[in-house]
Amino acid sequence: MIDVRNLTKRFGDHTAVNDISLRVGPGETLVLLGTSGCGKTTTLKMMNRLIEPGGGSISVDGVDVAQQDGPGLRRRIGYVIQDGGLFPHYTIAEAIATVPKLIGWTPTQIQERTRELIDKLQLPESLLNRYPAELSGGQRQRVGLARALAARPPVVLMDEPFGALDPFTRRHVRRELFGLNELRETTVVLVTHDVSEALELADRIALMDKGRIVQIGPPDELLNHPATDFVRDFLDDQPRRNQLE
Ligand SMILES: Nc1ncnc2c1ncn2[C@@H]1O[C@H](COP(=O)(O)OP(=O)(O)OP(=O)(O)O)[C@@H](O)[C@H]1O
C-alpha cells in the first residue's frame, strides 16, 4: 500500500508537483495520466527516491520512504521504464538475476524463478544468454518486467512501460502482462499519457495537470462524471468509451 501526502517538488521556480495526495491499495493498479510535463514522472520517481521530495511524505506499507536508504528501497520496489532499462553489458539472465542475487537468493532459486518468469512472459529460453541489443523492443520490454518482478516486490512502478512499442506489439504485450495473476496481486503505479492504455489497465486513474491531480477515480467515474472541462476534454472520445462497454 502506498500513501502519498501533500507531495511537492520544485525545480528552481517551477513547481513540477504541487501538493499531491493519494493512496494506492494493495493489489491496485493506479495510472498517473496527463499531458507532457504535468509531473507524472517526478511523482513516480519520488516514490522510490530517485528524486527527493521538496515537501510532503510517502509511505509504502506503513513505512516512510524517507527513513529508508534509496538502494534498499529500490530493491523492494520494482521499477520499469520505457525501453526496459537494461544494462547493455548484462546478459538477459544476469539482468533478471540482479535483485534476487543482491538479496541473497541461491543460484537454484534464481534459476527456477527465471524459468518461471520467462515462461509466463512467453520468452524463449534461448534468449537468456543474449544481450539486450540482440532482442526486439517487445522482448526487451518483457525482460524489463521480468527483472522488476523477479524478487516478487509488493510494489512495482512503471514509467511509460510500453512507450517504445508499435501500437500492435503494445496492445499484445500489455494484455499479456496484465493478464498475469502475479501482476494482479502486485500494487502498481503506472505513468502514461495514453488515454486508451489508462482506461484499459487502471483500477483508478489520477488525471494530472500542471503538477496537480485534477480528478482521481475509477475510469468510468472520470468518463461519466468528469470533475472539470479539462477532464472531459482529455477523456471524451466515443471510441474509447466503447472500450468500457
Ligand atoms: N531535473 C529537472 N530539472 C528541472 N526541471 C525538471 C526536472 N525534471 C523535470 N522537470 C520539469 O518538471 C516538470 C514535470 O516533469 P515530469 O517529467 O514529471 O513530467 P511528465 O508528466 O512525466 O512529462 P512526460 O509525459 O513528458 O514525461 C516539467 O516541466 C519538467 O520540465
From TrEMBL:
<keyword id="KW-0067">ATP-binding</keyword>
<dbReference type="InterPro" id="IPR027417">
    <property type="entry name" value="P-loop_NTPase"/>
</dbReference>
<dbReference type="InterPro" id="IPR017871">
    <property type="entry name" value="ABC_transporter-like_CS"/>
</dbReference>
<comment type="similarity">
    <text>Belongs to the ABC transporter superfamily.</text>
</comment>
<keyword id="KW-0813">Transport</keyword>
<dbReference type="InterPro" id="IPR003593">
    <property type="entry name" value="AAA+_ATPase"/>
</dbReference>
<dbReference type="GO" id="GO:0005524">
    <property type="term" value="F:ATP binding"/>
</dbReference>
<dbReference type="InterPro" id="IPR003439">
    <property type="entry name" value="ABC_transporter-like_ATP-bd"/>
</dbReference>
<feature type="domain" description="ABC transporter">
    <location>
        <begin position="2"/>
        <end position="235"/>
    </location>
</feature>
<keyword id="KW-0547">Nucleotide-binding</keyword>
<dbReference type="Pfam" id="PF00005">
    <property type="entry name" value="ABC_tran"/>
</dbReference>
<protein>
    <submittedName>
        <fullName>Osmoprotectant transport system ATP-binding protein</fullName>
    </submittedName>
</protein>
